[in-house]
Design a protein that fits this description.
The structure holds 4 protein chains of 4 kinds.
Chain B: H1 2-28, H2 35-39, H3 45-54, H4 61-70, E1 71-72, E2 75-76, H5 93-128, H6 133-145, H7 150-164, H8 189-195, H9 199-236, H10 239-246, H11 251-280, H12 282-287, H13 293-302, H14 306-334
Helix pairs in contact in B: 1-14, 5-9, 5-11, 5-13, 6-9, 7-9, 8-9, 9-11, 11-13, 11-14, 13-14
Chain C: H1 14-23, H2 25-47, H3 78-84, H4 86-113, H5 117-131, H6 134-145, H7 149-175, H8 179-187, H9 191-202, H10 205-227, H11 239-246, H12 256-284
Helix pairs in contact in C: 1-2, 2-3, 2-4, 2-12, 4-5, 4-7, 4-9, 4-10, 5-7, 6-7, 7-10, 8-9, 10-11, 10-12, 11-12
Chain D: E1 15-26, E2 33-41, E3 45-50, H1 56-62, E4 71-79, E5 82-83, H2 89-95, E6 100-103, H3 107-110, H4 117-128, H5 133-146, H6 152-155, H7 165-177, E7 183-187, H8 195-212, E8 215-220, H9 223-229, E9 232-237, E10 240-246, H10 247-252, H11 257-267, E11 284-296, E12 302-314, E13 318-323, H12 329-336, E14 344-349, E15 352-353, H13 359-362, E16 369-372, H14 376-379, H15 386-397, H16 410-423, H17 440-452, E17 458-462, H18 470-487, E18 490-495, H19 498-504, E19 507-512, E20 515-521, H20 522-527, H21 532-540, H22 583-587, E21 593-594, E22 600-601
The chains are: A alpha+beta, B mainly alpha, C mainly alpha, D alpha/beta.
The structure holds adenosine-5'-triphosphate (ATP) (2 copies) and magnesium ion (2 copies).
Chain lengths: 543, 341, 285, 614
């Protein structure tokens, strides 16, 4: 096996799964490994500029909302008219996709038209456009009235082809999230020509094709071979407009057990592996030929306490929990030092993050006093839920938390749930009482988006307020943030929100953890992106 | 005979219909659906609603069953042979099972061959010489081999032969990562690689199967051996074998008819185990990341992927019932006494 | 009902059993193991040197004097977990075996003795249950009703009942043709009385042999279900769960949290199999 | 009788086979056969006698160098001056089947169940003769015809389980004889057969031995067979030869205690019956009219087990029901006590039609009629003690004769159990034993005690003696006769053994293929049988008297096989075998006709009268 890998520029990447589907409006868009497939095959209109690498050599991005934070990808340049809220993009010429199609304005228009059609299993494209306030991308498209909805699903002139290489996109209101949203995998640009070729009468938007066969776009890689549930092989797109990728072939393989991925990278059978347990990363840190590096990006470990279920409807109980946890032990035993104590519920790398003035450090006595004040009586029926698929990481932590809480008189039982069931209860039923969660990363890189996503009450348009948190103060502040043009004021308001969130303990942030990779020491150029998917085009392999 | 088979087929059809409906209802009673996983948390309630409606989960169970069986619009239903589309990946369930099934069949068939190759000669020998040291050793082996869970054996073998000694390939699936898989025809790598003339893939595939096959064969050989021994002992003690000797028949003829007479119970046990292993090989499949039917079925349940669960249950049940039917036909061919039933 | 339900570990005539055990070393070993596992099921958690559910040491400590079998990734004492696990594993397997044997024997008796149309239906249903993929059934039942011991017992019982139905029915079919049944009828017994007082006790042998084997299967299947994520909840001490949550660490050289529970399973199942085998040689001939 | 003449065939002194110090052991423990010596001469028929389990079969097989798995043979067996036990497998194979033929105790089990008869016969033939498959096939047909199987070419394609026991035995004989062996070892060759078939078979074997001059070792437990067919007798007990004499000497003056005992048993006579008298139908206890019963076989074929049977059993009388296996005797017995529901006909018990009662209402009546089955071990719940077994009827019905069960105290029951055990001659210490710990004779006594517990008026005895060893059989017959006298019960005594019927019954009914063919007093039927079947049946009885050998007199044979009850012939059922057969027999069903002396016969040639339009 190592024989084949030795060919320069060819690498094997192992993950717990491979893309299950490639259509971002399809059923697998929420799965990280599927996203990895999408981001490497598709190209966005704009993307964040890069920043110098961190001390471990991981490339970083310059987050923000200003034009200076972004670089053109399929769009060469853009202008914004604040009066009409219209963005005009000059598109790049001579960009060729894998199938030989040439990129032009039709592809952009097609992409938005498809998003608005909400014809896929999960309308991510529409949702992102809606978040970015693109005009007419309203919930009407999902209305119960079929005829009305069908009308609303048609793309009007909000996304307009001016000429073959110019497109105008209109917003309904000013919204800072517009450019950040365009960087997200869920608005990658399709190659219309190829897509149209593969449509069918019942599937005019080629979902079946994009999801199960190939997603045609203008990205750095072209799909070579895809055996579902097993391997996903791509070749560099030799026509890629930014130059053919240096790693010319990537075999992305499914190896469900992290220990097996670890073994493979140790023996040189793989050049890059993802999502090992912290312990496994720690174990290869000093191994020969293997490097481990990471970055504190946007991953946090949270404890979620449901505001609708006693005893957690009482802020004192929530605070008692926060004081009871032994953060040092969790960092040491759960993350082997590759984490820091969280200062708030928003990732610290996101624009708008601020350190809250309400902090909770381990203090058993205080926890006990708070519980007494709250009149807490232990019934021994609290279930601490977590995703069973992440058991090897979360079980030791959950066990630790269980022991910590027992010390202050709260008895909990562990309740690992399959990812699907966890998701259903967390997002749809919203009835998890007490949960340990390390996978909430807002894809919109902005404290405001994170607030909207998680903390604004449902009545005020909050999207996924999974603990049923509701604070008039936060809602009010967010209403201001939403339309605030001035960055400074916006940041102050966001800081106030974050103070309030920590005072209420809307979520209990435990630690911020490193997103890590283990890879061959001949592999360089690794960079972190907010979706945690490696862009293979960043890499260089000197094997 | 034909009537017997026809009758059994009719019963099997009723059984399969009953199980299809039962499983359908059972699944709908599960406490979760996969909408949240499909959409992720970066989405709004509208999106969930839309995704749910897309899966038909907003309709009544009965109407969902109707669609599943009879299809809707252009989509064909189960009655027209369509197992539906996986909710997790969007591919057809039939194609996913089509990928997973050959892997399992390859794994368990080889395991049964190996188990048989160990168990049958040993069982026969110990039946001929009861009470000898070999008999006792083999008896102990039979008790012991079945005592530890197969996934534990698998893990131990991986630990020793891969991690410690480095003799075995990584337990990462059917082929080495960098090796191009042979063109898929049957889905079984060993066969496909031979068909494609790819000896490298054949040897590599074989190497990857050694540990899983040894694990399963180890566990399976115990009961098979016990049955061979028991059955051989019975036949060896039977009057007709004695009479064949007394009539001076050539030894080849005698041992042939002995084997044939002892074969029935062994065949029965093997078939039942084989049917069980279709879904039961999951533990070994996941230790070695083989991606067979068992793993697929477990994954489907964990994902609450309704059409896949339904499909895989259907396929395994139908296969098992077919195996039992074939078994009965074989037994009838083997033994004229079984023909009158 | 006067039918004597089969019981494991409480044979009717202990002195005979001891005498038999003396002649048969395998039975002796088996009985010792079974006795030990039942003892641990009752008192394992009490005699465990450390708490089996709370971290009592640093994570992943080697076996040492303070942790005889080391600690696992969560810092739990492996030895204490291993000896506390029979509370779950053995109790679960034994109860499932008992429930399914009683249920299966009764259904098998009625299906075999009163050969009516519904007996046929029962047999066809148990056919399908046997053809049904075990893990899916187990996982679905557990998903339906939650991960706890009671539900696992129900799931396992459902899986094993068809075996007992089949065995008992086959035996009843031969017993019902024996003359003592006819004599009982000639005596003026009602059919139910014949079925329960005469046929049932004489049809128990196959189930009795199977019972011990089923306990072993039950332990293995519990472990297997844990391995695929449908067993009991952590940190309940359970051998399969211990193996599955520590399998990852094997590659890091941490063999102790998965090797010891595996050995414990092997020993226990071996013990039950040995006893079953001895019963088979005695009862089944 | 003092004149010990040489057997009809002169024994040539040439030794065919000689066994010296042969031992057979099965694993550890004592030998099943030890120090067995035997010499067999040309043309001689040697009988090997002994009780069940004494090692006869083991010894016989050892003569071919064989033992049942996992047995071992030691010692020496000289054939043709060579020791069989030291020969190579190839040499042995050449002798087995060619020079020494074997017929086993269980014919059907000795045939390979997976192969057709034709294949098996021709395989054996081809193993010793260089012939083509076709030739072997033709030869097989000849062989089958030679042993009296009609339609042999069709039978070749049959599997063993499709054959009757008699037919399987014949197939085995043709295999054993196919290469004209010098020595034939026949191990209880007739134990599964009916008397008429047994006689037929032994005659044929004897004839063949005479004709070919081959020697025969005939293993048996039946003195009748020894007396009628053998020249010399070897008696075995506990794996050893205890006596070896010529047959005549043996019967005249047995030497060993054991031999004396078995001889005494067989010649015992307990005829102390009340004089047979015919009673009128009015005071009949059991009155059966036109009883019929059929069974549906698994393959949906219809088997007529009992056909228009009329029978009356006067109070206090014993009626014997004799006939071959499968003739429907047991079915009649079970119908009488309503263990089966008849298709047609009535059963009047004390004037009341019991077939009309519903099951629940009938149950208390069961106290008045009981049944004892053939296999005593099978009839006793193996998990119960004798005490509990005998108590069961008391618990259900009380002490009988109308006394309700609830009125009976525990002490009364205990008392009654003791009485019953005493009545059937069981010692009180059997009370706490289980069936397996009793001998067959004791088991049958327990069955009898249980049946008598509720003081029934009528007892069906279904071959109560046939599973017992000879000595116990005689005891049982004595007991039954005695009980009848003391308790005044009526019996329906079913048996195929004419001797025991003669000991117990006043009247005898003979059944053949679902019908009663002759019925009358014991004297009428036994001394002057009129139906051809009855005649043949009586003629087939082998008396343990070497001076009156069957082979020396003219025989009234029945040819051929009993027809299958599934596929009954159109006319008289005996037509295919009857020496008197005419065309009319083949065309017409026969009626049971009552003759002037009170007996009834189903044969128009014997009882021609009153044939009215049916
Ligand atoms: N295969 C065997 N294994 C062990 N013991 C055996 C075997 N066959 C026979 N025996 C024992 O050897 C002894 C002699 O048996 P054998 O069959 O020779 O007696 P037999 O006189 O032919 O009896 P029967 O009249 O019942 O046929 C018996 O005690 C029997 O239990
Ligand atoms: N329950 C049954 N089902 C089908 N066939 C039966 C059944 N009972 C008896 N027979 C058949 O009915 C016929 C008469 O049987 P029955 O037992 O009455 O004969 P028998 O004269 O008592 O014979 P034996 O001397 O062998 O006891 C036989 O051919 C038998 O095979
Ligand atoms: Mg014998
Ligand atoms: Mg009978």
């Amino acid at each position: 096996p190592t024989r084949a890998a030795a060919a320069a520029g060819e690498i094997t990447v192992l993950a717990e799964d491979i893309p299950a589907g490639l259509d971002y409006d399809g059923p697998s868009a929420a799965i990280p490994t599927s996203q990895t497939g999408m981001v490497n095959l598709m190209e966005p209109l704009v993307y964040y500029k890069t920043k110098p690498a961190n001390s471990e050599g991981i490339g970083l991005l310059s987050f923000g909302f200003a034009d200076a934070n972004f670089e053109g990808r399929l769009a060469e340049s853009w202008t914004y008219d604040p009066k009409t809220f219209t963005w005009t993009f000059k598109l790049r010429k001579g960009v060729k996709g894998c199938g030989g199609a040439t990129f032009n304005a039709d592809d952009v228009v097609y992409t938005f038209a498809r998003a608005k059609s909400v014809s896929g299993a999960a309308p991510i494209g529409w949702f992102l456009s809606n978040v970015a306030s693109i005009a007419n991308f309203t919930p009407d498209v999902l209305g119960a009235d079929k005829a009305k909805a069908a009308e609303a699903q048609k793309l009007g002139d909000e996304v307009k082809k001016i000429d073959d290489f110019t497109v105008a996109i209109k917003q309904s209101a000013p919204n800072k999230l517009f450019l950040p949203v365009l960087t997200i995998f869920g608005l990658g640009i399709f190659d219309k020509e190829t897509m149209e070729k593969n449509k069918t009468a019942t599937d005019p938007w080629s979902h079946e094709f994009a999801n199960n066969t190939n997603v045609p776009s203008f990205g750095p890689y072209c799909l070579d071979k895809w055996t579902k549930n097993s391997e996903f092989v791509v070749k560099g797109n030799t026509d890629y407009y930014r130059g053919a990728p240096k790693v010319t072939r990537v075999v992305y393989r499914k190896v469900p057990q992290s220990s097996n991925r670890l073994a493979a990278v140790q023996r040189g059978e793989a050049q890059l592996v993802e999502r090992l347990t912290p312990k496994e990363f720690d174990s290869v840190r000093k191994a020969k030929g293997v490097k481990v590096a990471g970055v504190i990006g946007n991953e946090n470990l949270f404890v979620h306490m449901n505001f609708k279920t006693p005893p957690f409807d009482n802020v004192k109980v929530r605070q008692a929990v926060a004081y009871a946890l032994d953060y040092k032990k969790i960092i040491a035993n759960g993350y082997f030092g590759q984490a820091t104590k969280s200062k708030g519920p928003i990732p610290s790398s996101y624009p708008g993050f601020s350190v809250s003035k309400n902090q909770y450090d381990t203090n058993i006595e205080k926890a006990k006093t708070l519980l007494k004040e709250a009149g807490y009586k232990d019934k021994g029926d609290i279930l601490l839920s977590y995703v069973s698929e992440k058991q090897s990481i979360l079980l030791p932590i959950a066990t630790q938390i269980k022991a910590d809480l027992a010390k202050v008189g709260i008895k909990v039982k562990l309740d690992p749930l399959p990812q699907t069931q966890y998701g259903d209860r967390q997002l749809v039923k919203k009835d998890l009482q007490f949960a340990l969660n390390d996978q909430e990363k807002p894809i919109g890189v902005d404290a405001g988006y994170a607030t909207l996503l998680f903390f604004v009450s449902s009545e005020k348009g909050g999207l996924n307020n999974m603990v049923n948190y509701s604070s008039p103060k936060v809602d009010d502040l967010f209403a201001k943030v939403k339309n605030e043009a001035d960055d400074k004021t916006r940041n102050t308001e966001l800081a106030e929100i974050q103070d309030q969130l920590m005072a209420d303990l809307a979520w209990l942030p435990v630690v911020e953890l490193k997103t890590q990779w283990a890879f061959s020491d001949k592999l360089t150029g690794l960079a972190w992106h907010p979706d945690s998917s490696i862009r293979w085009n960043d890499l260089k392999y000197a094997g | 005979m034909t009537r017997f088979v026809a009758r059994r087929l009719v019963i099997a059809v009723v059984q399969v219909a009953a199980i299809t409906i039962a499983v359908f209802l059972l699944i709908r009673a599960l406490p979760a659906d996969p909408v949240a996983t499909r959409v992720g948390f970066n989405a709004s309630p509208d999106v969930y609603r839309k995704a749910k409606a897309d899966l038909g989960l907003d309709r009544s169970t009965l109407s969902q069953l109707g669609t599943y069986l009879g299809g809707s619009g252009t989509e064909r239903g189960l009655l027209a042979g369509n197992l539906g589309t996986s909710w997790a990946s969007g591919s057809t369930v039939a194609s996913e099972i089509g990928d997973a099934l050959p892997i399992t069949l390859e794994l368990i068939s080889l395991s049964f061959l190996l188990a048989g190759a160990i168990a049958i000669p040993l069982g026969m020998r110990t039946a001929r010489r009861p009470g000898k040291a070999l008999d006792k050793a083999v008896f102990g082996y039979g008790l012991f081999a079945g005592a530890a869970p197969e996934f534990w054996w698998g893990l131990m073998l991986v630990f020793v032969f891969y991690f410690k000694l480095g003799w075995a390939p990584a337990p990462l699936g059917r082929l080495s990562p960098q090796l191009q898989a042979p063109t898929q025809r049957t889905g079984a790598i060993l066969i496909d690689s031979l068909l494609a003339g790819r000896l490298d893939a054949f040897w590599d595939g074989l190497r990857h199967l050694i540990l899983p096959v040894v694990t399963l064969a180890f566990v399976l050989s115990g009961p098979i051996m016990k049955m061979v021994r028991q059955s051989m002992t019975r036949v060896l003690g039977s009057d007709f074998v004695l009479y064949a000797q007394a009539a001076g028949l050539p030894p080849r003829q005698v041992s042939r008819s002995t084997l044939r007479a002892a074969f029935g119970p062994v065949l029965t046990l093997t078939s039942i185990l084989y049917g069980f292993m279709l879904g039961g090989a999951v533990l070994v499949e996941s230790v070695f990341s083989l991606g067979g039917l068992g793993q697929y079925s477990v994954k489907s349940v964990l994902e609450f992927n309704y059409p896949s669960i339904q499909g895989v249950v259907l396929v395994i049940t139908v296969l098992s019932l077919v195996i039992y039917l074939v078994l009965d036909v074989l037994l009838a061919l083997l033994d004229p006494r079984a023909r009158h039933r | 009902m006067t039918a004597t339900a089969p019981t494991v570990g409480h044979p009717k005539r202990p002195h005979r059993l001891i005498a038999a055990a003396r002649r048969d070393p395998l039975l002796t070993i088996g009985l010792c193991i079974v006795a030990l596992s039942i003892f641990l099921a009752l008192f394992g958690t009490l005699i465990a040197p450390k708490s089996p559910t709370e971290p009592t040491g640093a994570p992943s400590e080697h076996p040492s004097l303070s942790h005889w079998m080391g600690t696992d990734a969560s810092g739990l004492d492996v030895f204490s977990q291993v000896i506390s696990a029979p509370r779950t594993d053995v109790v679960l397997a034994v109860s499932a075996a008992l429930v399914s044997s009683v249920l299966g024997t009764l259904i098998g008796l009625t299906a075999g003795y009163f050969r009516t149309w519904w007996a046929e239906v029962v047999m066809r249903i148990s056919d399908v249950l046997q053809a049904f993929p075990v893990f899916i059934l187990g996982m679905m039942l557990v998903a339906l009703s939650g991960r706890n011991t009671g539900n696992l017992i129900v799931a396992l019982s459902l899986l094993y009942t068809p075996i007992f139905i089949r065995l008992t029915r086959a035996e009843v079919l031969t017993q019902r043709n024996r003359s003592y049944v006819e004599s009982a009828r000639a005596m003026g017994n009602s059919e139910w009385k014949i079925a329960f007082r005469h046929v049932l006790p004489n049809s128990l042998a196959p189930s009795l042999i199977q019972l011990s084997v089923t306990v072993g299967f039950g332990i293995l299947l519990t472990a297997g279900l844990s391995y695929v994520g449908a067993g009991v909840r952590p940190p309940t001490p359970e051998w399969g769960l211990m193996i599955s949550s520590s399998a990852n660490q094997l590659i890091l050289g941490e063999w102790w949290p998965s090797v010891f529970p595996g050995l414990a399973i092997s020993f226990t199942v071996f013990g039950f199999a040995a006893v079953g085998n001895a019963i088979e040689r005695r009862v089944g001939g | 009788m003092t004149d010990v003449s040489t057997p009809s065939s002169a024994v040539d002194q040439e030794v065919v086979l000689e066994a010296r110090g042969v031992c057979v052991s099965y694993g550890e423990g004592t030998n099943a056969v030890s120090d067995f010596d035997l010499r067999i001469h040309r043309g001689e028929i040697v009988g090997l006698l002994g009780e069940s389990g004494c090692g006869k079969t083991s010894a016989a097989l050892a003569l071919m160098g064989l033992a049942r798995h996992p047995g071992r043979v030691s010692g020496s067996v000289l054939y043709d001056n060579r020791n069989l036990l030291e020969m190579s497998d190839a040499e042995l194979r050449d002798i087995r089947g060619r020079s020494i033929g074997l017929i086993t105790q269980k014919p059907r089990q000795s045939l390979n169940p997976l192969l057709t008869i034709g294949t098996q016969i021709s395989r054996v033939f081809r193993a010793h003769n260089r012939v083509s498959k076709e030739e072997a096939q033709t030869h097989a047909i000849e062989l089958l015809e030679a042993v009296g199987i009609n339609d042999a070419s069709r039978r070749l394609t049959a599997y063993p389980h499709e054959l009757s026991g008699g037919m399987a035995q014949r197939a085995l004989i043709s295999m054993a004889m196919s290469s004209r062996p010098q020595l034939l070892i026949a191990d209880e060759p007739t134990s599964g057969l009916d008397v008429t078939i047994q006689a037929q078979f032994l005659d044929r074997m004897w004839e063949r031995a005479q004709a070919t001059g081959s020697a025969v070792l005939l293993v048996t437990q039946d003195l009748g067979i020894i007396a009628n067919y053998c020249d010399r007798i070897v008696v075995m007990a506990d794996g050893r030869v205890i006596e070896e004499r010529t047959v005549r000497e043996f019967f005249l003056s047995p030497q060993q205690e054991y031999s004396k005992r078995i001889l005494a048993v067989q010649s015992a006579d307990t005829t102390t019956n009340p004089a047979a008298r015919r009673l009128e139908g009015s005071d009949a206890l059991v009155e059966v009219k036109a009883l019929s019963k059929h069974f549906v076989l698994p393959d949906k074929r219809r088997l007529q087990a009992v056909q228009s049977v009329d029978l009356s059993i006067p109070a206090g009388h014993a009626v014997g029901l004799v006939g071959e296996s499968g003739s429907g005797k047991t079915t009649v017995g079970r119908l009488l006590v309503r263990l089966l529901e008849p298709d047609a006909g009535t059963v009047l018990f004390a004037g009341r039609d019991i077939t009309a009662l519903d099951a629940k209402a009938f149950r208390p009546q069961r106290a008045r009629m009981q049944i004892v089955f053939q296999d005593p071990f099978d009839s006793l719940n193996p998990r119960w003690t004798v005490d509990r077994i005998v108590r069961e009827p008391l618990d259900l019905h009380g002490l009988g004769r109308g006394e309700p069960a609830s009125n009976t105290t525990h002490a009364e029951k205990q008392q009654r159990i003791a009485e019953l055990l005493d009545l059937v001659g069981l010692s009180p210490d059997t009370r706490n034993r289980k069936a397996a710990a009793l001998s067959a004779g004791e088991q049958q006594r327990v069955c009898l005690a249980r049946a008598l517990a509720t003081q029934p008026e009528f007892l069906v005895l279904d071959e109560p003696t046939s599973a017992l060893p000879p000595a116990a059989r005689v005891e049982m017959v004595k007991l039954l006769a005695d009980l009848r006298r003391r308790l005044g019960i009526s019996y329906l005594f079913i048996s195929h053994d004419l001797w025991t019927v003669g000991q117990v019954c006043d009247e005898v009914a003979v059944m053949y293929l679902s019908q009663i063919v002759e019925q009358g007093t014991r004297a009428q039927v036994f001394e002057h049988p009129s139906h051809p079947y009855t005649q043949a049946l009586l003629d087939s009885v082998l008396l343990p008297d070497p001076t009156d050998r069957r082979v020396d007199r003219e025989r009234k044979d029945l040819a051929g096989e009993i027809p299958s009850p599934v596929d009954l012939p159109a006319g008289c059922y005996l037509a295919g075998r009857c020496p008197l057969v005419e065309d009319r027999c083949r065309a017409e069903r026969q009626e049971l006709v009552t003759m002037g002396d009170g007996r009834s016969v189903r044969c128009w040639k014997v009882a021609p009268a009153t044939r009215s339009a049916s």
